[in-house]
Amino acid sequence: MTEQQGITILKRDALGRVERIEGAHGVLVRRVACGGAIPLSGVFARLFARRERRALEALAGLEGVPRLVRDAQLEAPRPSAVVLRSFIEGRPLSRADELPEDFFEHLDLLVVALHARGVCHNDLHKEQNIVVGPDGLPNLVDFQLSSVHARRGFVFASRAREDLRHVEKHRNRYTRLGRGPGGALQRGAGTSYRRSFLARAWKRGGKPFYQFVTRRILRTRDGAEERRSENGPWPRWTAPLGARRR
């Protein structure tokens, strides 16, 4: 992480850079899809930026996800290659010190709210994409791999199930072996979901290809996801938030 002219660079790789900016709009995150010398890096960078922008447009006004911001000056000289969004305050799930007892219930509700807008996140297996806010509520970030569905057909249903299944995997990991509130293992909306046909196809063919492109060709660190160690420390549980909403 480096700072230059009031801009904090959070990440830089073959797909561009991610910056934190403080200005008239408050604290923003700017993703610049500039690519680099590696062939096709610019193409992939712009594709991911377009997916993120489209998802945030569909989720406008929904609490718990970043707010898309438009600013001609901050988007210059190529607005199509820049995504500006509000900064989500909090800590990634992998670094949270405490969680309310009903955290994963609220996470289920947030994911279902995404689906109600026709958006599937498609990258919820990463703990760093789930941000625990100061109020204990979950937030979701990094919509580069998200998809927006005008029709709620087979593909949408399959991806929506995968989102909920990944939430359930996190819930199980954080509450099993006596880690849950009162030592109990929690169960939630994704309990009965098995990996879908599309997810199995992705794991067998799509994911290896994606990892080959991102790690070997584009040389990004996308595959090096942050995950809480099995040895902990695990977060302590606080009083449930109940029906509290933003």
Polypeptide structure, described:
With 246 residues, the protein is an alpha+beta fold. It folds into 2 domains: 2-86, 2-Layer Sandwich (Phosphorylase Kinase, domain 1), CATH 3.30.200.20; 91-238, Transferase(Phosphotransferase), domain 1. 32% of the residues lie in helices and 20% in strands. The chain is built from 5 helices and 13 strands. The chain has helices spanning 41-58, 72-75, 103-116, 154-175, 197-217; strands at 2-4, 7-13, 16-23, 26-32, 68-69, 82-86, 91-92, 98-100, 119-120, 130-132, 138-140, 147-148, 236-238. The strands form 4 sheets. A 6-stranded antiparallel sheet has the order 1-2-3-4-6-5, covered by helices on one side. The protein has a 3-stranded antiparallel sheet with strand order 7-10-11. Strands 8-13 form a two-stranded parallel sheet. The longest helix is centred in the last third of the chain and has 22 residues, at 154-175. The mean pLDDT is 85.
Write the layout of secondary structure elements.
Blueprint: E1 2-4, E2 7-13, E3 16-23, E4 26-32, H1 41-58, E5 68-69, H2 72-75, E6 82-86, E7 91-92, E8 98-100, H3 103-116, E9 119-120, E10 130-132, E11 138-140, E12 147-148, H4 154-175, H5 197-217, E13 236-238
Parallel strand pairs: 8-13
Antiparallel strand pairs: 1-2, 2-3, 3-4, 4-6, 5-6, 7-10, 9-12, 10-11
Helix pairs in contact: 3-4
The main β sheet shows up as: 6 strands, antiparallel
Low-confidence stretches: none
Rg, nearest Å: 18 Å
**Strand order across the biggest sheet?**
1-2-3-4-6-5
| Tally of structural domains | 2
Shape: globular
Percent range for helical residues? 25-40%
Going by CATH, the architecture of the largest domain would be: Orthogonal Bundle
Distance between the termini: 31 Å
Give the beta-strand count.
Answer: 13
Number of helical segments with 4 or more residues: 5
The CATH topology of the largest domain, please? Transferase(Phosphotransferase), domain 1
Alpha-beta content class: alpha+beta
Mean pLDDT: 85
Helix-strand sequence: EEEEHEHEEEHEEEEHHE
Classified by CATH, the class of the largest domain is Mainly Alpha
* Residue share in β-strands: 15-25%
